[in-house]
Structure to design on (399 residues):
């Protein structure tokens, strides 16, 4: 029997993961991208001096900091999704197998739709029938029911994003016991091992997402200025690595930009107040980083509009109607870092086929990041979400 302390921990853990996935990944569901969404490790600190008495290095002698790189939740090295593909012989073998698949998603929305479309297109090429597609509305119990529904149809492959890693360990157990090839998006059930209970995990290139956001803001400011940094204040590797990569790349690549204010955010609704406080305490602020679009970036934009701070540049993660509209209308938003959601689905489906073939997949696979500006937003939506931008964004573009 679980102790009250353990039960409380499990409940808080489940609520945290559900909140993060809803807000960050994958905050994309209103119109956008998640993200979900590309796993950046905290950057390595500069090396320590050989001994305390030695003078501090001059600017020319300062130790070089390496660019942040993406790692999996357990430190797994990231492999590019471009390397996940079937040979002609492997494709023919799969096409002859009369296989089926189930898509069991955490929620619905533009991001999930794009992932699903990428998977469906790949499965169609492989001759694999998608027998069911569900969305659990961020309800872990419903996801467990969806697994049971799918198992009644005997799929050979299941693609999913786990809402609560703790309860998902039991929820996906029937599929594991039946030998179904499981492929996960971003998160995996607690205690599961790649190559044993599941085939692989696919997500954003999280370091590349953070670097893209840093480049967009740094270039918009001409490499000079003072910025505020709002980061996700919760232990979730996806958002943590994206945030850390942004900060590290600003410090490494834009020495003329100073982070003069930083504040953690656990509740997206607090973003407006955080941004307002930053503006009050730092009237010379030139830019702000928000950790994702739907919620945090919306709050930052609201604070800037209320203060009449039209000259403060903003960057964020994930495609969303509100931030996209502000971007194309020449508002505060100067860029958005997005992932290739369609490519996530294609990669997951292909990894499912790897499982059927007994072919080993890399432990952790990531898809590319996209630097989105007003000039390339139409192409970015098509690449990321396999769809045109929302009509109001197209109207603002004059098309």
């Amino acid at each position: 029997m679980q102790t009250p302390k353990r039960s409380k921990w499990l409940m808080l853990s489940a609520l945290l993961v559900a909140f993060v996935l809803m807000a960050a990944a994958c905050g994309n569901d209103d119109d956008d991208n998640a993200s979900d969404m590309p796993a950046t490790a905290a950057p390595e600190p500069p090396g320590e001096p050989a001994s305390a008495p030695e003078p501090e290095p001059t600017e020319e002698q300062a130790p070089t900091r390496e660019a942040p790189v993406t790692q999996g939740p357990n430190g797994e090295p990231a492999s590019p999704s471009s390397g996940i593909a079937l040979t002609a012989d492997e494709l023919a073998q799969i096409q002859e197998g009369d296989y089926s698949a189930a898509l069991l998603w955490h929620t619905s929305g533009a991001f999930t739709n794009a992932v699903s479309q990428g998977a469906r297109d790949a499965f169609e090429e492989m001759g694999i029938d998608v027998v069911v597609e569900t969305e659990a509305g961020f309800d872990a119990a419903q996801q467990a029911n969806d697994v049971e529904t799918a198992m009644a149809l005997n799929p050979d492959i299941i693609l999913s994003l786990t809402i609560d890693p703790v309860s998902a360990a039991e929820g996906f157990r029937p599929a594991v016991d039946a030998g179904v090839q499981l492929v996960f998006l971003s998160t995996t059930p607690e205690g599961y091992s790649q190559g044993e209970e599941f085939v692989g995990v696919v997500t954003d290139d999280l370091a590349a997402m953070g670097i893209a956001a840093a480049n967009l803001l740094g270039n918009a400011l001409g490499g000079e200025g003072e910025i505020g940094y709002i980061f996700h204040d919760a232990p979730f590797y996806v958002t943590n690595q994206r945030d850390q990569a942004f900060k590290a790349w600003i410090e490494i690549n834009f020495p003329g930009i100073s982070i003069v204010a930083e504040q953690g955010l656990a509740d997206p609704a607090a973003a407006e107040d955080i941004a307002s406080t930053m503006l009050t305490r730092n009237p010379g602020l030139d830019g702000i980083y928000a950790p994702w679009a739907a919620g945090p970036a919306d709050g930052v934009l609201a604070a800037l509009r209320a203060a009449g701070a039209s000259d403060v540049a903003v960057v964020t993660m994930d495609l969303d109607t509100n931030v996209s509209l502000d971007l194309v209308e020449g508002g505060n938003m100067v860029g958005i870092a997005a992932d290739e959601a369609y490519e996530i689905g294609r990669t997951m489906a292909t990894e499912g086929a790897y499982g059927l073939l007994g072919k080993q997949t890399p432990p952790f696979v990531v898809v590319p990041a996209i630097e989105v500006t007003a000039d390339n937003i139409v192409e970015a939506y098509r690449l990321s979400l396999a769809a045109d931008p929302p009509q109001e964004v197209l109207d603002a573009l004059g098309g």
About this structure: The radius of gyration is 22 Å. The first strand starts at residue 79 and ends at 80.
